[in-house]
Amino acid sequence: MKEQVITFKVGRDLQEVLNRIPNKSEFIRNSILESLGNKCPLCGGTGILNESQKHHWNHFLEHHSIEKCNDCDQIHIKCDFETE
Fold it and tell me: Residue 19 falls within a domain, yes or no?
């Protein structure tokens, strides 16, 4: 597949940081690919659930909860049937 050039605007601060990176293109490509792999599997990264997704989510929450981890201080999903 032929590579394509994509451009985007950044502020001066980000430009200065990126200018210090030896291979900006590789860094940006890897960062984008990493971010895409870390998007929410339910909403696809939009941050909004449609009506069908909300229905499934509410059903899921019947036996799951959203909690904050005491060790890493991050939010996670906990199953009611999970033993600690």
Answer: yes
Helix, strand or coil for residue 64? strand
State the chain's maximal CA–CA distance in angstroms. 50
pLDDT score, position 52: 95
- Domain hosting residue 47, numbered range: 12-79
- Identify whether 5 is part of a domain: no
Give 38-79 pLDDT, tens digit per residue: 888 888 888 899 999 999 999 999 999 999 999 999 999 999
Q: How far apart are CA 47 and CA 81, in angstroms?
A: 27
Give me the phi and psi of 60, to 5 degrees please: -60, -40
Domain count within the chain: 1
